[in-house]
Every structure is written in C-alpha cells, then in structure tokens.
Design goal:
The complex is a heterodimer of chains A (134) and B (134). Chain A is α/β, with parallel strands linked by helices and 134 residues long. Helices cover 31% and strands 26% of the residues of chain A. The model of chain A has no long low-confidence stretch (mean pLDDT 82). Chain B has 134 residues and is α/β, with parallel strands linked by helices. Chain B has a domain of 85 residues: Nucleotidyltransferase, domain 5 (2-Layer Sandwich). In chain B, strands 2-7-6-3-4-5 form a six-stranded mixed sheet, with helices on one face. Classes of the chains: A alpha/beta (134), B alpha/beta (134).
C-alpha cells in the first residue's frame, strides 16, 4: 500500500562540528584569564590632624621617590622591612606604623611597604604624602 | 610510458578523530580552568602583592592610571580633583565598599589623594587590588 520510506544511512560530515568546536576553543582561549587578583585592605588616611592620635608609639617608614625604603631614618631593603618593623614595634599592640610617601614615588613601593607592615604585625597603618623627605 | 595513478588515494576518515579529541580536551580545559571576567577597558598593570583580605563584594571599582589620572565611572580627572567629585559620584548609591585598581607605576601621591578624598566622604577602608606575585 504505502511505500515504506527507506532511510538511507548517510555518514554525517564532522567538518561543521569541528568548525564550531574550534570557534568555541578560540573564544574560551581569548576570553578566560588566569591572573589571580587579591585585595589588600587599607585604612584611608585621615585628612585632618585632629583625627590622628599622637600619644602612641610610632614607627616611621619612608618611601622615597626612587622607590627605596627607610625605616625610622635608616636604609632598609624591602625584604628585611617587615622584620625591621616587627623589631621596632617591640610587641606594642597600640603602636602605629606611619608610611610617609615622597612625591614621585610609585604605587608598587607603597604596596610593598604596606604589606611589610602588615606582615610585621602592625595593627594600625597610616599613609600620608609629603613633598620631600629631608 | 609509465602509468601514473589518476586518483590520489582518499585519506582515511579516521585521521581527524584524534585531532577532534585534542581540541575537545583543550576546550574543556579552558572552560573549566579559566574564569570569565568582564574585561576592564582601562589599562592598568596591577602591582604585585601577597597579602589577601578577601571581601565578598565591591560596590565600585576606581582606577588610577599610570599617569596619575583617576577614573570615576565614565569620568576621568586629575587625582587632585577626584576628592571633590567623589561625593557626588558615591552619594547616589550610598557606596562604602570601594576597590581601587592602581597601576604599579602610578604616582603614589595620586593614590593617597584619592584615598584622602574617600575618607572625606566617609569611606574608612578601601581594597587595593594586587596581582599575585610568584
């Protein structure tokens, strides 16, 4: 009566599939990023001097315009800065690390100083900018 | 005369299959291992850091470019002007979780000026975004 439709088995071409997979691959290769970012929490500097408590023990870190650091006036490398800060803090939980940044210094040495102070056990870290140190 | 074969032998179909396997593998790797992030249209080289204070979310991200210019949303301005624009910029949403992406070569004074401005509008803590250093 009816013609039974005969489905001829054809080999499906893989080429469009490969095209699409290549396209997806290129998309994911370009769109993904493997850079891990992290956040460093920093207290914003007090704009008025009244907010600054003056009766605390202060450890001063200078960031000079050439990117080098001074700890209480003495030359120190970034590697030894956190140990130096820990030593100068003397285990005083109230002590303040004050980071003075000279004009012309870049962000990277400042970040290094903040992290060194954090690693050195400083509870409160202040940043401020000065035109010229000495 | 020497007889040459007219037809070059057809390449067997199976040779593409290992290729597809590898491409699929790469595709799955990039899909799983990478993270898709919205791209920043502002070019900043993040400073390297180790300390990570993870915070759940940031309401707003401010940028400090290598030349010291500050991006507040669509506005670009000198760092000295940014404190005056912050109140209007942040007041709309009552924003207090602020992240700053500062270029590693940006002047640290611009960053500190921006943080001083943030303190003026009531932001006591900011997150400086750093890149994981090896």
């Amino acid at each position: 009566m009816f013609d039974v439709p005969v489905h001829k088995k054809r080999i499906v071409s893989l080429t469009p599939l490969i095209d699409v997979v290549f396209l997806l691959l290129i998309f994911f290769m370009l769109a993904t990023s493997f850079i891990q970012t992290q956040a460093l929490a920093v207290l914003t500097p007090a704009p008025s001097p009244e907010e600054v408590e003056t009766d605390r023990h202060v450890v001063e870190v200078w960031v000079l315009s050439d990117g080098t650091h001074r700890l209480d006036g003495e030359v120190i490398t970034l590697e030894t800065l956190s140990d130096g800060i820990r030593r100068n803090l003397g285990g005083d939980p109230e002590a303040v690390v004050s980071i003075l940044v000279e004009k012309g210094a870049a962000v990277q040495p400042l970040i290094g100083a903040i992290e060194a102070a954090r690693n050195g056990g400083a509870q409160s870290i202040g940043t401020s900018r000065v035109e010229k140190i000495r | 005369m020497i007889d040459f074969d007219e037809e070059t032998p057809r390449r067997p179909f199976e040779t593409v299959v290992p290729l597809i396997n590898i491409v699929f593998l790469l595709l799955i790797f990039f899909m799983l291992a990478g993270t898709l992030q919205p791209t920043d249209d502002i070019e900043v080289d993040l400073p390297a850091g180790v300390v990570d204070d993870k915070r759940a979310s940031e309401d707003v991200v401010l940028y400090v470019e290598a030349d010291g210019f500050v991006h507040l949303g669509d506005l670009v301005m000198d760092a000295a002007l940014a404190p005056y624009m912050l109140r209007k910029f942040l007041d709309d949403g009552g924003i207090f979780n602020v992240a700053i992406k500062a270029d590693e070569n940006a002047p640290a004074h611009s960053l500190i000026q921006l943080m001083e401005g943030l303190r003026n509008v009531g932001v006591r803590e900011v997150n400086l975004v750093t890149e994981q250093s090896e």
